[in-house]
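Title: Comparing notes on inverse folding

I've been comparing how different people in this forum approach sequence design from structure. To keep things fair, I'm posting one structure and asking everyone to reply with a full sequence. Here's the target:
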């Protein structure tokens, strides 16, 4: 398989792939100055379309742009063996679940998501495509997270909350109210400091 993006985040994704027994051919990156990442070669051109690949870039918008432009790749899903995932969870293509994650029953996770180290997602949550749930985030039951949203390090979301599309939830924020599309939220309790039109 290939990893698209020779980034720092890519190092962690590569190790999850290794834990799953994948043979990694190398990274793909447009930066001509990057030639090696970990023990792997960095290629600067896209290979043939019918390959196994995962986008190893933390930025949600960049992941979406790459996925939208490259629809013929076989996008793999990576689940770290030291994550705890209910058998009644749906996780779609291109997503990666890191070490120490706990995902409970009846959760649906979309395409090209990052569920990062030691985060917790409780029952009946929906996490749409291109979301990044940062390390140590806690989502209570029945939380909805819209497409492209980034939930920052150590944030907490109480049960039943709806977070819109392409939001930014600041590190350590505590979300006790629904959040509209395009909002940036910080603090405890979380307060909206900016909203962009989508």
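Reply #1:
Here's my take.
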């Amino acid at each position: 398989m290939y990893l698209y993006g020779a980034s720092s985040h890519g190092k962690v994704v590569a190790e999850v792939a290794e834990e799953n027994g994948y043979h990694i051919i190398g990274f793909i990156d447009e930066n001509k100055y990057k030639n090696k990442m970990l023990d792997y070669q960095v290629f600067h051109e896209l290979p043939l379309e019918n390959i196994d690949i995962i986008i190893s870039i933390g930025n949600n918008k960049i992941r979406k742009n790459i996925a939208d432009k490259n629809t013929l790749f076989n996008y793999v899903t990576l689940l770290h063996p030291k994550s705890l995932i209910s058998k009644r969870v749906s996780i779609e293509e291109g997503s990666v679940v890191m070490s120490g994650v706990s995902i409970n029953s009846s959760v649906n996770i979309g395409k090209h998501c990052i569920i990062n180290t030691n985060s917790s997602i409780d029952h009946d949550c929906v996490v749409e495509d291109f979301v990044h749930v940062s390390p140590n985030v806690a989502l209570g039951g029945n939380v909805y997270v819209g497409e492209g949203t980034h939930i920052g390090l150590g944030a907490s979301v109480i049960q039943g909350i709806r977070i819109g599309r392409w939001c930014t939830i600041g590190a350590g924020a505590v979300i006790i109210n629904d959040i509209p599309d395009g909002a940036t939220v910080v603090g405890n309790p979380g307060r909206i400091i900016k909203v962009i039109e989508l």
